[in-house]
Amino acid sequence: MRPAERRWFDEAVARRAASSGASAAVIARRLEARLAAGEPLQYVLGTWSFRGHELRVDHRALIPRYETEQLVEHVLAAVRTGMRVLDVGTGSGAIAISLALEGPRLEVTGSDVDPRALALARENVRATGALVTLVRRSWFEGAEPESLDVVVANPPYVAASEWERLDPAVRVFEPRVALVPGPSGLEGPMAVIGGARVALRPGGWLFMEIGETQGERLVAEASAQGYGDVTVERDLAGRPRVLVARWPGATRAAS
User: Fold this and answer.
1) Which of 64, 153, 193, 233 could cross-link 242 (Cys pair, CB 3.0–4.6 Å)?
2) How far apart are the first and last CA of the chain?
3) pLDDT tens string for the chain (255 positions)?
4) Which of 173, 136, 179, 138 is nearest to 155 (CA)?
5) Distance CA 188, CA 35 (A)
6) Which residue range forms the structural domain that includes residue 134?
7) For this UniProt entry, which segments traverse the membrane (predicted)?
8) Is there a domain that residue 61 lies in?
9) CA dist 233 → 66, 90, 131, 217, 245 (Å)
10) How many domains does the chain have?
11) What is the 3-state secondary structure (H, E, C) of the chain?
């Protein structure tokens, strides 16, 4: 482990020893065995920082990643006080919580179809004190037409054929349903593009994390469905990572 990871590991051991009464040595051996088996450090520690917010992480949802922190950054640059925001497929709640805590008094809802992920998100909402409404729904089920100012999503976008090429730690320990939406990997992003166009108000924004090879196809799809100002923003490694699009009809006040 790197020095910082060793520090986090030692802190996790100390916390668990204090809360359980077990010796630190015994707990350390148990956690080290999990690491030796290939389990991601984030799951072994049980918590992880996302944009400075300490979140509980476990096998119920994907590990929050740095690329997704940048997705949040794009949303924060566009939102205004009082906007209604939906985080589709909220998972651990990392995106919704960050927007609620960092944004200008936003009305944030996080949705997920998986009750286990939603339970994890609820734990994180309670722990952080974020004002987030959580609902169980598939995609945009139950969302009223023209009711949202912003849709943000990190949908599953890995093609089925790419699954076996992923890091074993991802394949073995992270939930496949949150990574692979179908054969092409485009099924998730396409569902978001199609659903958001109904739920967004005129001038509303769509922000979505995508696979690095999907940008051209999804820009074409969003444009064909009527979105304007469609762009793909790159991550810090230079990879196409965030689709940004606006539903037409923006007024001067909303711009």
Assistant:
1) 233
2) 47
3) 888 889 989 999 999 999 888 899 999 999 999 999 999 999 999 999 999 999 999 999 999 999 999 999 999 999 999 999 999 999 999 999 999 999 999 999 999 999 999 999 999 999 999 999 999 999 999 999 999 999 999 999 999 999 999 999 999 999 999 999 999 999 999 999 999 999 999 999 999 999 999 999 999 999 999 999 999 999 989 999 999 999 997 543 333
4) 179
5) 31
6) 66-254
7) none
8) no
9) 15, 21, 28, 14, 11
10) 2
11) CCHHHHHHHHHHHHHHHHHHCCCHHHHHHHHHHHHHCCCCHHHHHCEEEECCEEEECCCCCCCCCHHHHHHHHHHHHHCCCCCEEEEECCCCCHHHHHHHHHCCCCEEEEEECCHHHHHHHHHHHHHHCCCEEEEECCCCCCCCCCCEEEEEECCCCCEHHHHHHCCHHHHHHCCHHHCCCECCCCHHHHHHHHHHHHHEEEEEEEEEECCCCCHHHHHHHHHHCCCEEEEEEECCCCCEEEEEEECCCCCHHHC
Identify the CATH number of the domain in which residue 218 sits.
Answer: 3.40.50.150
Whole-prediction pTM: 0.93
In-domain check, residue 70 = yes
Structure tokens at 7: 């520090």
The answer to whether 62 touches 167, Cβ cutoff 8 Å, is: no
Distance CA(230)–CA(223), nearest Å, equals 7
Residue 36 shares a structural domain with residue 151? no
Whether 115 and 210 map to the same domain: the answer is yes
164 within some domain: yes
**Quick one: tokens of 38?**
């290939």
